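Hello Y.,

Per our agreement to keep a running log of every chain we model this quarter, I'm adding this entry. I've kept the format consistent with earlier entries: sequence first, then predicted structure.
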Amino acid sequence: MRVLLTGAAGFIGARVGAALREAGHDVVGVDAMLPAAHGRDAKPPPDCHLVDIRDGSALAPLLDGVDVVCHQAAVVGAGVNAADAPSYGSHNDFGTAVLLAEMFATDCRRLVLASSMVVYGQGRYDCAEHGPVNPLPRSRVDLDAGVFEHRCPVCGATVSWRLVGEDAPLRPRSLYAASKTAQEHYALAWADAAGGSVIALRYHNVYGPHMPRDTPYSGVAAIFRSELESEDVPRVFEDGGQMRDFVHVDDIAAANVASVEAERDGFDAFNICSGRPISIMEVASELCDARGAAEPPRRRHQAVAPVVTGQYRSGDVRHIVADPAKASRLLGFHAAVDPRDGLREFAFAPLRV
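Predicted structure for the entry above:
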C-alpha cells in the first residue's frame, strides 16, 4: 500500500517509516522539522518532504494515490505552561483538521492516528467499599504530607489502580491531553461524515533508541538516562510508586504496521502498551543497575541508586496502566519487548541531542 506518514523524521515516525518499508509498503514521509523536536538547523532525511500539514496546498499533491495516512506528527509533552496552548491547538488540532479535509478532497478514507494514554486523565481506580470511582484530584495537604494515593470521593479511603480499557471516559488533564482528545474527536466526526476508517492508537510511555534528551518534553526514561550520563543520580518524584506501562518504540512501529494492514470500518481506539506494568522507581533502578554493571570492577562499589525526593508536581497522574486485550484480539498486536529488558538496553542506547 501507499502510505502517507506525517512526523516521519521524529523519534516514533522514523521507526514507523522503517517498519512500514520493511513490510513492503510505499511510504511518503512528511515532517515540518519543528526546532523544538529536531533542533534549529536540522534538515529532513532524504526520504522525507519538508511539509507543514497545516498547509493544505502543500499537502494535497502528496496524497495522490495514497491508500492510508499514518498520522504521527504532533507537538508532544505535557506542556511547560499555559502559554503552550496555542502551539498544541495549532499543530495538533488545526493540523489534523487540515489533514482530514485534504484526505476527504483526495478520496483517501483510511487514517491511523497516533493518540495517547493521556486522554484517560487520572486512569481507573476502585474503592474496596464503593467499587469503581472517579477520585478527585489529590489535595495539596495530602501531597505535602507524603500521602500520594488517591482517595475515594465517597468515604475518603485510599483507592487501588486498575487496568484502563478503551471504553474509559476521556478526561484530559493537560494541554497536550486536551489536544490529543480533540484529535480523536475530529477523527471520529470525520469517519462518520466521510464514511472513513480511523484506528486511534493510544500510546503509553514510549521509549527506545534515538528518543530526545534534555528537553522539557523528554520522557522520564530519557531524563533518568541523562542524569546518569552526567554522573548524577535519577531523582524520583513522590515515593516512586507511580505505576505506568513503558512500551518500546519498535513495538509502537509494529502496532502501526498492524493497523495500516487492518481492515476495519468507522472509528476505533486501541491501547498500545507492553501489558507489563512497572513503577517509576523500577524504571530508574533498571537504568542504574544496567549502567552500574558495565562499570569496571574497581568502580562498581560506587554504583548509584535512584534518590526518592518526595517532591511532586501539581497535576501529575498517580497511576495510569492500560489493558492490552483489545489490541491483541482485534489487531493481532502483542508487544515483544518486556520493559525490564528494554530499559536495560536503553541504558546505553543513543539519544537525540
